[in-house]
Amino acid sequence: MVQFTGTHINGKKTTVLPTALRGSLINMAPKRGIRLDYGTLIEYDMKIKTGEQEKDDLQLIDGVSVIGLMGTVDRSVFTSRIIGDYGAIDISASRLDRAVEVTVEVTVSEVQDIFHLCLGCFISGLHEEIRLFDGTIGEPRGLKRYVVAVVMGTQMDLKFKVDAESSGCSEHCCSFTAHQHGHADQLIKTDFASFLVKVTRSVLPNKKNLFGAPAKRVE
Fold it and tell me: Where is the DUF6598 domain (predicted)?
């Protein structure tokens, strides 16, 4: 199981797909899981937006990496650097033994004003944040689904950081314990909006899994 969270952009003022701001994180929630018998396959397709047309974008990374279980330690984060034609990306990941797959769905309702939302995820006692969302909310909407791997019996903590020009910044948290199967809901109410969090848990097909911590672009 591989989960990516994003890229820090430094140097020139550029826009990297699929987000659009210099210095922001790129959300790279997985579209599908890929399993190999002796490793994990990570597929990359990352571009730098340079104009209005997609054909004008610069290809930063296009390829695959294979991470084997040899030399990795349970719940220990490791980082690899991938050099592209127009920069480099630092990819951090960790092996999680006895993990379950957790799907996170967040619905934003009762929006009172425009605000900036940063949604971070912390799993299985690791200090590295998995950035799930970083953007502006101006109307009721559902955020896209996010999939993370969490060690069975440990907690997944979600931190909502709400920032509005009118009243400043506030933080709200909720936690879920990873079990083999099932689902749970929590409702968070703030002065700007309500957040309905739904998590669904299911067992992964293999005992050893990977999650991705933040990925950084470096010069």
Answer: 28-199
Spatial distance between the Cα atoms of 90 and 112, rounded to a whole number of angstroms: 38
List Cβ neighbours of 123 (8 Å cut-off, separation of 6 or more): 96, 130, 148, 149, 150, 151, 154, 155, 156, 157, 211
Contacts of 185 (CB under 8 A, 6+ apart): 196, 197, 198, 199
Say if 213 falls within a structural domain: no
pLDDT tens for 79-90 read 888 888 888 888
Residues 171 and 77 in one domain: no
Range of the domain at 177: 99-202
Domain count, the chain: 2
pLDDT at 169 over 80: yes
